[in-house]
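To close the chapter, one final illustration. This time we ask the reader to focus less on the individual chains and more on the assembly as a whole: which components sit near each other, and how the overall shape emerges from the parts.
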Amino acid sequence: MESEYKLLSGAMVTLALATATLVVVPYLQLDNVQPSPGLKPYTEQQLRGREVYISMGCVYCHSQQPRSQSMAPDFQRGWGRAPVAGDYYYDNPHLMGTMRTGPDLFNVGARQPSVDWNLGHLYEPRAYTPGSTMPSFPFMFKLKDKADAGDKVVNLPPSFAPAGKVVVASPQALDLVAYLIGLDHTYPVNPDATLPQVVKDESAARIKATAAEDGAKK
Amino acid sequence: MDTVTVLLLTFIMSVTGLGIFIWSLRRNMFDDNPAAAGVIFSTGEIGHVEDPSATPEQRAGLQKTVTEGGKAVIDPSLADQLKRELADRMEADQSTAYVTFVFLSCAIVWLVVASTFGLISSIKLHNPEFLTQYAWLTFGRTRTLHLNMVAYGWCPMAAFGIATWVLPRLLKTRLYGGRFALLGCMLWNAGLIAGLGSIAVGINDGLEWLEIPWQVSILLVIGGALIALPLVFTLRNRKVDHLYVSIWYMGAALFWFPILYFIGKVPGVHFGVEQATMNWWFGHNVLGLYYTPIALASVYYFLPKIVGRPIQSYNLSLIGFWALAFFYGQVGGHHLVGGPVPHWLISLSIVQSMMMIIPVLAFSVNQHLTMRGQFKTMYYSPTLRFIVVGAMMYTLSSFEGSFEALRSVSTVAHFTHFTVAHAHLGLYAFFSIVMFGAIYFVMPRVMSWEWPHPKLISLHFWLVTIGIGIYFVSLSTGGWLQGLDMLDASKPFMDSVRVTIPYLEGRTLGGSLMTLGHLVFAVHFVLMALRYGTSRVGPALLHNRKFQPESQAIAGA
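The assembled structure is written out below.
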């Protein structure tokens, strides 16, 4: 090849093609997606907690996208139905994740709605899940001789509580827990309303399953 | 738009586009064009081996495997012209020496720091109580620091360094605008340090591969553009008609990257699920359209150069390049198999992933045919070992990648350490190992000095190849078992965590060997920069023409 112009224009055409298919067309197709009915916007505290989630890199071990039942038993594990695009309406940046060193968190708020459990779990994951490889986050907590007024004391299992001290949660830890507990996408969705996501006969089963899951939660 | 229509349309467009390109290049395509493939050699140089990091014995052995009798003969009628061309090449080398040295020095610093953080992260995965007292040492940050140091520190610095050195040689001119590259290098490093600092304190954009805050990314974009400028100037001043295959890969890559990065980082555009598709469009293309072409360009240059024989089929290299350009850009969506994205997008990406077999085969066949009957050369040439092993790993990692995109495989492998192992096969076993070889080849020219301790090169080679071998086998196995456990609803989730532990420990072992190899490499590099060791070839070394005996001039220039 003799012409650098041919080279560069060719290179740009191929890149444009890739950008069109993986960025522009999805943009156009998803631009008018509405939030799923039942999805609530984040509160101020949850948004702060989301920032903590991002800054601690939780996304590198936890996904937020259960797979469909035809693909993997994510639903049977209690992780919930497969998401649709509208479920991520308020998410910026997206935190779908690509790794499951730990479980999927799309519905962790529905599974573990207890503030105490979540705080204790952040302080020492192995106190609640033996063998867990999640890091502990001791720097998000303070050890005090006595709790002051307004302090949120973490109730730990006795064998994991430091002797003679109380463990107090930092605002950061409380924000993060507020975000985690807010992760609850158990409301039903109609997959056909948003995107051609699944084949028709599958969707009926999916909605039924979602309803069943909701029932089980109550 | 209907799913099937979109899918068919893009597919037809890709194939048509490829067809048009092949048609437009047809004259070159179907010519038996050894002249084009031989453009990396000076007149009469084919048949002469070259490995600046080899000892005289190794060099003699290398030559012996290539030519019978072990002597390369120069046609006396061509000797004068060869002398002139070698003088030009030395001028090209001298013009790039300083710039290349700066880039490669930065690359090696980042390599060592990055592997340290990689090792810390690896230990944390099977020993979660290791270093938990500070936020910046938590897994989510050390892992991210590791990734960013590799992706924006070691890899691009090495790539820029090698590209800066190779391009003027191929264009048979000196480097124009080297100062812009130096300024770009400084801006890039400043941006990277600022970006890493902000990740360490917890400020980041929250997207994998795109963590560096966009405000800081501006420095990287400007830096990258400044680094590409000398390429443009040098291209305009070129003294060759024909652009060798390495130039296409490097030229295209240097232009692709800033565009990718710009689209990925532009604030306020991407949202929700669309952001996820963009995320993987970027994450995959930075590998496929930036690191991969640079490393392939290096293989296409160094491999024939070392064995003194042009690549077997220039036409295959053409197919390889354009097919890579057409297919690779659209494979990113397979990271979202099973995710809440349009079905057509995933199907398209899977199709394109499988199409990638074409350029990979084109490259592998070509490489194999060029090396055919010459594998013994690897025994003698320290740099060729790296290049050939790295190139083979390209074939392996690309085939693995193509099959990993299939739904059935992805169902198991996705969300597991298997993907991490695959990423390391590509960016480490392929890209980094090719870069090691290229750096060993380039540095004696850059410094006009020889590697002080050739045995350290061997040590480095064995440490990193054994290290990545253990790493890859161990982590792939662990990841696959993890995936199978996750698909078995009768097993609790914790089983999929427990099953990986011994394999994660294996990964740490492999990673330690790799890190050790990098330390050996870095120490050797510093010793060379400080001019330790005795020069084994006499004062003639590489830039000094006066004292070089004829045969040495070939071997050394």
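The CA atoms of residues 412 and 487 of chain B lie 7 Å apart. The two ends of chain B are 59 Å apart (CA to CA). With these observations in hand, you are ready for the problems at the end of the chapter.
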